[in-house]
Amino acid sequence: MTVFRESHKGINIDENEIARLDNFISSLILKGQSIHHICSNNLDTIMRSEKTIYNYVGYNLFSARNLDLPRKVRYRPRKKSTNDFKVDKSCRNGRTYEGFLNFLKLNPDTPVVEMDSVEGIKGGKVLLTIHFTDSLFMLAFIRDSNTSQSVIDVFNYLYQQLSPNVFKELFPVILTDNGSEFSNPLAIEFDKDGNRRTHIFYCDPSAPYQKGAAENNHELIRRIVPKGTSFNAFSQKDINLMMSHINSYGRKKLNDKSPFSLFSFLHGVDTLKILDAECIPPNDIILNPKLLKQS
Description:
The chain is an alpha/beta fold.
């Protein structure tokens, strides 16, 4: 195994993430593209600065080398290292938690959806969870990496599958945290033609309790896929199966009804079919690792 001695100098990246970036970036470099061009057109996929990518190439972490670059830009070394990727704080302008509360005051009957990420192992596949607070129903989507583009892709897929009207009914307001994967709200709030399809708001920094409604479902996910277990072997079909069992599980908050049954009442069976959600009979529900070992 390669040991990266440069880690104390600012290289802080695991092998899975190196492989992901190498697979994406090196092929474009070998086509003759500059790192500036690659980074400026793929920010939501790369999630790292142009300078950082030059450093990775310079440390020979990628299959592409300095000699493959059309023009090597040299940077002066800085005395103090900084984080490789910082969220553009401007994305929170007009989307703060206070703004969220004000929005609900003006629109008191608006249902809220909470969005979060659940990691397996660092640098591996990751889940995007979408929690409907009115029914406790949750969707989960497997993503190859925790990038903002992967989140955007999920919402574009849902918008296409559900139709604009159903999408707007399900996702009028989305509350999320300040993770870098949620740092491009405009690409989720508007479709490709500039039509608004939802509103996104952010919790205050270090205040995850402000969107704590999803925690019970996250705990159920961890019963099936314990913390520290990789999601890499799972497909979307596996995740849909897991969420069908979780959503079919009765809740005291719902008078022992299931999130599935309440969501079906609110939004209809046809919507559940589009979402590949299935009702599991109460005595057939499995909430431990055996569930996905059987799939």
